[in-house]
Amino acid sequence: MSHLTTKKNFQIFSLIIVFIFSLKYFQSTPFETLFFQAQAFFLGIVLVFLMLFVFTKLIKRRKFDKMIFYYLLLIVTIPFYSAYRASTEFGQPFIYGVLAERTWLLLGTSIWLYYVLITKKISFSTMESAFVFMAWVSLFIFTIFVLTFDPNQLQSSEEIANFVHLTEDRGLRFKFQKYFITFGSIYYFVKYMIDKNAKDLIYMSFFLGFVFFVIQGRFYILAILLTYTFYLIMNYSMSRLFVIVIKTGFVLFVGLLILQIIMPDYLDRMSYLFSQMFTVLAGQESMDSSANARIFASLIVFEYFEMHPMSVFWGTGRVSHQWDGGYDSIFGYFYPSDIGVLGGIFMYGAIGFIVLYLIPFIFSINVLRKLPSSEDVFIVTFKYLLVYALIASVQASFYFTPIRYLIPLLILYAFLKMQWQDKIGKKSIN
């Protein structure tokens, strides 16, 4: 094995470790306890990297990139601000609030990804290999779980009960980390559209099959399909798009006929779930208890805002489930993440909406707008992975899982910065 191959394999392994911890890959799995113990050590490493990154900039008197500096400020300030607000509103001890927001420290891994790319310590091709590897490993392992284990049996064990969750219409489901499944679904779609290789279409069908038949998330499916639609609209003329729509419509029609014959219950169930979702979006009570729970959670927020008007602006902070039973002891069953952007405003207020949602949204749009036309499958994939993140942001991912949009954002930003540097270099040579 050559030195270069060994170096690349080590880099891929390092990236995989970073992905596992930054995206909480083993959260809600049988390995959750061990994972969080190891993650505490990982967070310490991230903190050391960020300190060295900042000190190096200061010592060498180099300017901070504005976007990177912005996210450094968020990493430092959000945990303390949230802890202060939760202490003020609910009397939660300050330390619980800071620890509850330790997820923001994980954003440092996105800055590390940006750093290793911009300094050419790791190449984009190596980064691509790591993502593709994680996509296939995730698909393989998750499929083995679905085919091998019965979620009803797992629920009976207290140690691994968190790995499954009960849904009213789909029964017990496994909780899987979907990030790399999403990447695989978009990556092989883009690869097929660029290379026109039937093999990539087959690979894409594997990932989409998992999305439609295993995960079955209503909004998740809708977000991926909308991402595909954006790709087609942005890359094809109306005449060509019309042909694609006709072909796709025919394939979908045949597929639905086959499903109706072999899996009629699946179509009936998915049709019902989507109809209930749109009923709730229309502001009406549905027959879906999970959807109705979001309506009731929204009512809790509105009632709280009515009683504490200033919390609309300042927010209430994050309450840790480790302190006095968490939100259950205050409101009963209540999770701010269930109600999307409204839940984010409840926690961080209008000021948080601007700082954590609006400004990052503008950052993302600007990066997407400045990206040059490219046939690089990895870069185009991340372009539309960021588009997917913007679509999914209505579920408040910018508040509750910001790492999921920041990874593609800063990888694309590193790509842009390197292109700018290359242009400057060429001009200086000329």
TrEMBL record:
Transmembrane annotation, as ranges: 12-28, 34-55, 67-84, 96-118, 130-149, 201-234, 241-263, 345-365, 377-396, 402-420
Record's keyword annotation contains Endoplasmic reticulum: no
Keywords, in A-Z order: Membrane, Transmembrane, Transmembrane helix
Keyword Membrane: yes
Protein name: O-antigen polysaccharide polymerase Wzy
